[in-house]
Amino acid sequence: MSHSLFAADTWRHLDHTHDPALTSWVDSANQPDTDFPIQNLPLGMARQRSPQTGDDGAAAAGTGTGTGSFRPMTAIGDQALDLIRAADAGVFSEPVATALRACESLGLNPLMAAGAHLRGDCRLQLFAALRSDAPAELQARLSQALIPLSEIEHTLPCRIGDYTDFYAGIHHATAVGKLFRPDQPLLPNYKWVPIGYHGRASSIGVSGQTFRRPMGQTKAPDAEAPSFGPCKRLDYELEVGALVGVGNEAGQPIGIDAAEQHLFGLVLLNDWSARDVQAWEYQPLGPFLAKSFATTISPWVITAEALAPFRRAFVRAEGDPAPLPYLDGAANRESGAISIQLEVHLQTRAMREAGELPARLMGSDFGDAYWTFAQMLTHHASNGCNLQPGDLFGSGTQSGAAADQGGSLLELTQGGKQALTLPNGEQRTFLQDGDSVALVGFCTAEGRRRIGFGACVGTVLPAVG
Amino acid sequence: MSHSLFAADTWRHLDHTHDPALTSWVDSANQPDTDFPIQNLPLGMARQRSPQTGDDGAAAAGTGTGTGSFRPMTAIGDQALDLIRAADAGVFSEPVATALRACESLGLNPLMAAGAHLRGDCRLQLFAALRSDAPAELQARLSQALIPLSEIEHTLPCRIGDYTDFYAGIHHATAVGKLFRPDQPLLPNYKWVPIGYHGRASSIGVSGQTFRRPMGQTKAPDAEAPSFGPCKRLDYELEVGALVGVGNEAGQPIGIDAAEQHLFGLVLLNDWSARDVQAWEYQPLGPFLAKSFATTISPWVITAEALAPFRRAFVRAEGDPAPLPYLDGAANRESGAISIQLEVHLQTRAMREAGELPARLMGSDFGDAYWTFAQMLTHHASNGCNLQPGDLFGSGTQSGAAADQGGSLLELTQGGKQALTLPNGEQRTFLQDGDSVALVGFCTAEGRRRIGFGACVGTVLPAVG
Fold this sequence. Notes:
Two copies of one chain form a homodimer.
Chain A (H helix, E strand, L loop, with lengths): L42 E6 L2 H4 L2 H4 L10 E6 L2 E4 H6 L5 H9 L6 H5 L2 H15 L5 H8 L2 E3 L3 E4 L7 E4 L3 H11 L15 E4 L4 E3 L2 E4 L2 E4 L8 E4 L3 E2 L2 E7 L18 E8 L2 E2 H7 L13 E3 L4 E2 H4 L3 E2 L17 H6 L1 E2 L2 E7 L1 H5 L5 E7 L7 H9 L10 E3 L14 H4 L7 E2 L5 E2 L7 E8 L7 E2 L3 E6 L4
Parallel strand pairs in A: 6-22, 8-16, 9-27
Antiparallel strand pairs in A: 1-2, 1-5, 2-3, 3-4, 6-7, 10-11, 12-15, 13-14, 13-22, 14-16, 14-17, 18-19, 20-21, 20-25, 23-24, 25-26, 25-27
């Protein structure tokens, strides 16, 4: 088909929802540095923490202290809005309200399955209700459905049936490849195939996730036999995650021009990695226990609609091959890339105890990804594999081109050979127990409000035993 | 702990359920060649097909023509017994009945989560109700709950959260390795690490599954660039699947002595593979689209209890390293292996149209696996990864040591270089459209009734377009 949701005029009826002059009656949403202006309206699953633990925000995050059901919510400024209560207040059309109510306890999957058009309606209706000029009576009712972000706890935004991790960060693939093959960093298939592998779904958690340092088999190059013990080269990976909206039937591929209609929105994703375990286990079938102990995503899904103003042309470097026709579409070329500023921040236990803020380790731009999520999705379904609402894709590590833009410690320390020195004098080659890693993501563009992704934090606990 | 479910006396209270002298009032269960004598009592999810299509058994299999809910059932001779109706008839204790009722529409996951002890109770109670000496009144009531196997349709036995495919067939790993590395067929990690990778859960289907020949990117060695088209080297893989019962919390490994308590039962598993796609895509992160288009399992889960008489010592060949301590337990050594006779049968479209039976291509023994499922499970959870009830493990291709015992066409045809000739004169290097592959599995031992796995059939449809 020639018309696609991805074409320049796709979101025209939503254009005013990006107008930076429009403000919300929720004052905090109008602060210039908020992640959640009225132009964002992310979607997540949350509930209010129990009053007993509500005072201890930081410690209680992610520990499941609340007692009510998890409900679909949006974030606006420093508040969360309960969307089922908003539906009760008459904010939504009947189809949107029905889809949102179906999400209670289950996750956003029913909304994901309902498609991009309904999601656009949801955005429009929420926008109208939260605008400064919304009816005073509605404002009063919705004020009752606001919960400070500091008082909520999240669960995963949806039931994730399958998780696929791609490898679309060419700077990462090149830097890591160089460590193993200085003369041929990129394998011959890299510029043709959106390389990916199936990941572990059960161990995906939301921001606030803590996990024990994994145990595993490793073998030193000079050792006669491997041994089993705590991972010594524990790392993070800075990725963007995409959640699938509408799926496809088995045997029914999704053409590149239709791919964007199947993408619901984006999150930040930390693909925690045990480098020493990976090095010993990964031949010939790929990473397994080196990755499956934990994966952390940010709880607020930034919708495709919110990201529309930050799209840009998808271009290949001079001399690189054009994608094969099944991965090459006009809309993908015109606006397939999305510019998202990405950063990694690290807070050690000593920093936390001293009240020091996390240190920024690097920054990169998701617009540099070698493949778009539309291409990854089309490739994924090209063999007839059925995708389902809530499936998660990881982008692969998003490093920048420069040496100080590595999206993992493996890159920043050149395979552990050159330690990083933190502002407080501590050094790191790989992660230590007690370290917290925060991924940061936000979009900016001339004449647009900043759209942020919110927190994606995970913390390393000591190994068992 | 020193006592384990795996020790020799574990199933002593179930010993009489293996007594070959005991028969059922369901006459067909007493035929010597049935897969489902009273000593088996497998568990699955099924429903009666609608009467309109009930006459056309073969064509309707797996097409979802029934209208009622899928319910937990067992197979006995040529009949299926609806276990919720059996619960209504008073067959089960209250805890077992409650777990079985919770499975309706959902799958066996609640029963899986309830643990090995309750599953043993379920077996005992079913056995008592189906024995020849069961009360006549009970026989009369249960007769009403029997449905001929030819009139039921299956869905997956459980909701499969994550699917992990291992590589525990050493003869397969050696044969395939030889095709690529004649001088070093097995990689250095093979005898130390139960190699595995995450598989695609969404495309797993039950026996009767049909799927389109996958499209994919391939590159001929002499081609300048890859191309996209139908897979030319489509293959099957003969595997055994294991379903996880009770899971573990994240960060809480499962010791080798406790591993058997977490295994619910076994199925047959066909890991369909696109060899040409795999060859081009798999470096460096492993198989992806070459496997994700379809995986077929047999619908009846053969429980750990039914398989107890076929256990045998797990021994390593002279000169092979002992497993590292975390994978080495006394019970695993004593009775960790399970002897299951495995076969692959092929029926081409021409054979089907001529009314010819499938041709047997090979046979092997699962007792030859290099790792036990207990070891795979302990290894999987050793990094803290949380396993969940209903998770599926594949064993990897189970080939025998001889060249004619290859568990895939890749092996039987030496990489496609030497075609197989079928009884009707047709030749095959890889699968053609219309081919059906049937996996067969059964256990036999001196003085024991034969325990069969039932059908695991899948059929290749032409590629899209």
